[in-house]
Specification:
Blueprint lengths: L6 E5 L4 H12 L4 E6 L2 H13 L3 E6 L5 H9 L6 E4 L15 H28 L3 E6 L12 H16 L3 H4 L2 E8 L21 H6 L5 H13 L8 E7 L2 E7 L6
Parallel strand pairs: 1-2, 1-4, 2-3, 4-5, 5-6, 6-7
Antiparallel strand pairs: 7-8
Helix pairs in contact: 1-2, 1-8, 3-4, 4-5
């Protein structure tokens, strides 16, 4: 899809990957970017950068774990071509199995249920407008074990399967769904793994053994996914920094192999 002149929705856009992607979409010619998050100050900063890149920025404070509010808000929109389901949270402390039932529900709803519901609403709306693109932020933790946050890893594995299972939407609804799997990336979410705004102790070997991507590295992969309509639905790309270089690992729907 040619991003120029298009309207995009970016969730989790107050910082990190969401902010970098909102800016990059504007730089690629998007006419309007809907900025969605709960961080009002962060969204205002993102909106300023988007406007500097000559795109319209609309800010929406929305708790995506409130599925009813998500359905009402997204269902009221009809003028968008791109949906970037990026918002996500880690469990923090206490970890599973000490986490409260309320916290478990919040994480599952924000990381997975909201993605499923938003994609369903978007697929129906985009079909009526001739199609569109949905990109889901997953994580390289979906490719294997090694990440001690059980709730985060489990919801990201679910997001991976969901993205792959959406492959047929490209033919049935003219909506191409793809996933981006960030490796270790320098965003505020990392310091929410532990207590008091610091890294969890179990993060130490991960931080020591991996170089961090920048949010812009992930944003570049997202726009590449959006722009390449030759890709079939359900594809994904993992992005890691290895030996000082950004390395991409591509995956395809196994049903086509």
């Amino acid at each position: 899809m040619d991003i120029k002149g298009k309207t995009a929705i970016v969730t989790g856009a107050a910082s990190g990957i969401g902010r970098a992607t909102a800016i990059r979409l504007a730089e690629h010619g998007a006419a309007k970017v809907h900025i969605v998050d709960i961080d009002v100050a962060g969204m205002a900063e993102t909106a300023g950068f988007v406007r500097q890149a000559s795109a319209i920025a609309e800010v929406h404070r929305l708790d995506l774990s409130d599925i009813g509010a998500l359905e009402e808000w997204l269902g009221s929109l009809r003028d968008y071509d791109i949906l970037f389901n990026n918002a996500g949270v880690v469990a923090g402390v206490p970890q599973f199995p000490q986490a409260s039932i309320e916290r478990i529900g919040f994480i599952v709803d924000l990381n997975l249920t909201a993605m499923i519901v938003a994609t369903q609403i978007a697929a129906q709306a985009m079909q009526g407008r001739g199609g569109g693109v949905v990109i889901n932020t997953i994580s390289t933790v979906a490719l294997g074990r090694g990440f001690s946050d059980v709730l985060y890893a489990s919801t990201k594995a679910g997001a991976m399967m969901f993205t792959r299972c959406c492959a047929p939407l490209k033919d049935s609804h003219q909506v191409r769904v793809a996933g981006v799997l960030p490796g270790l990336t320098n965003t505020p979410i990392l310091k929410k793994t532990g207590a008091d705004g610091d890294y969890a102790p179990w993060m130490a070997p991960i931080l020591a053994g991996n170089a961090m991507c920048a949010p812009q590295d992930i944003a570049e992969a997202v726009t590449d996914l959006i722009e390449d309509d030759d890709l079939p639905g359900g594809d994904w790309v993992a992005v890691r920094r290895i030996d000082g270089e950004i390395v991409r690992q591509w995956g395809h729907d196994e049903a086509r192999d």
